[in-house]
Design a protein that fits this description.
The complex is a heterodimer of chains A (113) and B (113). With 113 residues, chain A is mainly beta. Chain A has no helices and 12 strands. Chain B is an all-beta fold and 113 residues long. The chains are: A mainly beta (113), B mainly beta (113).
Chain lengths: 113, 113
């Protein structure tokens, strides 16, 4: 079946450090790929997306590239800020599953000043 | 409406009582999803609606859980004879199409005492 695996947290970084949160999926088809973010005390928000191979999604300094050959969609940011502290969820969606998002377990990021 | 609205935002109930959670999706969004987020856990898929029908009910944890959607709009999630393990944040999301990603509501925090 379709599934997604993302790096376990928490990830603790100093401000201005480089961030990578790994995400890989297993699928029989070609999903669209999403990263969602949940800031403390808030709901989930769409961070970025990529709908086909080699697409790069980007938003707020975050980037992720759809890698079909490695079935991955790793999230990166060159210089994190304290305000990036949140839980990040990787979520592919498959057309043959009603476009249902299958969420990874979430990765908590803590950025220290 | 402008966003996905969920009510109530918080619900405390006694074990054994029934509860009803409501989701009002974005106008025109045909797909509606219910997820559950337990403390410190990831997101657990519960049920998905396309219009008024629910092609995928596989995530409902037990027969105490049911959901319906009327008029292709508002959905209610009902939990009968609540148990303490039902305590969680129940999230609703709607989507026009999967490639656009979802818009989440702020959730209903359910506490069973």
């Amino acid at each position: 079946g379709n599934s997604v695996t993302q790096m376990e947290g928490p990830v603790t970084l100093s401000e201005e450090a480089f961030l990578t949160i790994n995400c890989t999926y297993t699928a029989t088809g070609y999903p669209s790929l999403f990263w969602y973010v949940q800031y403390p005390g808030e709901g989930l928000q769409l961070l970025l997306k990529a709908t086909k191979a080699d697409d790069k999604g980007s938003n707020k300094g975050f980037e992720a590239t759809y890698r079909k050959e490695t079935t991955s969609f790793h999230l990166e940011k060159g210089s994190v800020q304290v305000s990036d502290s949140a839980v990040y969820f990787c979520a592919p969606t498959w057309d043959n599953a009603g476009n249902m998002l299958t969420f990874g377990g979430g990765t908590r990021l803590m950025v220290k000043p | 409406g402008a966003g996905v609205s969920q009510s109530p935002s918080n619900k405390v109930t006694e074990k054994g009582k029934d509860v009803e959670l409501r989701c009002d999706p974005i106008s025109g969004h045909t797909a509606l999803y219910w997820y559950r987020q337990s403390l410190g856990q990831g997101l657990e898929f519960l049920i998905y609606f396309q219009g008024n029908s629910a092609p995928d009910k596989s995530g409902l944890p037990s027969d105490r859980f049911s959901a319906e959607r009327t008029g292709g709009s508002v959905s209610t999630l009902t939990i009968q004879r609540t148990q303490q393990e039902d305590s969680a944040v129940y999230l609703c999301a709607s989507s026009l199409d999967g490639n656009g990603g979802y818009t989440f509501g702020s959730g209903t925090r359910l506490t069973v005492v």
